[in-house]
Specification:
Blueprint (H helix, E strand, L loop, with lengths): L2 E3 L12 H12 L14 E6 L27 E2 L5 E8 L8 E10 L3 E8 L3 E4 L9 E10 L3 E11 L4 E6 L7 E3 L12 E2 L1 E4 L12 E4 L5 E4 L1 H6 L3 E2 L21 H10 L3
Parallel strand pairs: 2-12, 3-13
Antiparallel strand pairs: 1-6, 2-4, 4-9, 5-8, 5-10, 5-11, 6-9, 7-8, 10-13, 14-15, 14-16
């Protein structure tokens, strides 16, 4: 595992990162070519607070501690100033067989959240110039693929001072967000949902077995949980049904004058 201290950011590049470069090229070439889902299909990114380990002043961010065995064990809220240890996790549906050789993602967080340290949980990494600042991104690879349903990708140490805020997993600012496997042709698989950790507020947990498409009246579609979809006025399409072309059609609208509307109501006897 490689570690970077925020006061001394040094970029390290390894040939294994070429896996991600090839995958980026393949993702561009295959945009219009449907392919079968790979082993990393339907995964999610989560942000989990490691609350079982006591923090001692001067300790670094650490990988390996308090990784939840299942999605429903993820802690998505912390209260108080901290500092807190927390991690960005990958999680996959029960019954799947992930083989994650690489991942690309980014982070975003409010100005009241301050990071003290971070550590990549992979073997090699390549990050943007200001990583791990908000809006920046990282690519991480493993010499041997991760095969567990829930595992750590990157650990952080940080605290909150001021207004409640979210620390969110997002797309890399230039490369998007995806997993790659260890096959010869690494078809990228985008996570179906991206979670967050709340500092003084609730974060978002999207368990891969409980995520589906949420259709809104304007035709917009977002993969989310049933409860969040219904709270935002959307129509949930079911667990395991994900956003795709033509799934969500906008609610039809008919242009009518005020006089026409009054006429419709008169004819209906209202």
């Amino acid at each position: 595992m490689s570690r970077r201290v925020l006061s001394n950011p040094v970029v390290s590049i390894h040939p294994v990162l070429l896996i991600l470069s090839v995958s980026l090229l393949l993702s561009v070439l295959a945009i219009d070519s449907p392919v079968d889902a790979g082993p990393n299909a339907n995964g999610v990114l989560l942000v989990h607070a490691q609350l079982d380990g006591a923090y001692t002043d001067g300790d670094p961010a650490d990988c390996g501690g308090d990784t939840p065995a299942a999605c429903d064990e993820v802690v998505s809220r912390v209260d108080g100033e901290g500092p807190f240890l927390f991690s960005v996790l990958a999680a996959f549906p029960s019954g799947s067989s992930p083989r994650v050789a690489g991942v690309v993602f980014g982070v975003e967080y409010g100005p009241s959240i301050h990071l003290l340290d971070y550590r990549s949980c992979g073997d090699y990494e390549l990050f943007t110039d200001d990583w791990p600042a908000s809006g920046e991104g990282i690519a991480i690879t493993w010499a041997y693929p991760e095969t567990t349903l829930v595992f750590q990708m990157c650990a952080f140490l940080g605290y909150q001072y001021g207004e409640p805020a979210l620390f969110s997993s997002i797309a890399h600012p230039t490369q998007g967000v995806f997993f790659v496997d260890d096959s010869i042709i690494n078809d990228p698989e985008a996570p179906v949902a991206l979670g967050s950790l709340g500092f003084g507020t609730d974060g978002s947990i999207y368990c891969p077995d409980e995520v589906g498409a949420c259709c809104f009246s304007d035709g917009d579609c977002r993969n989310t949980s049933r409860s969040e979809c219904e709270a935002e006025g959307g129509v949930y399409q079911g667990d395991g049904v994900y956003c795709g072309w033509g799934l969500c059609e906008p609610t039809p609208m008919v242009r009518m004058s005020w006089g026409q509307i009054r006429s419709v109501f008169r004819e209906s006897g209202r």
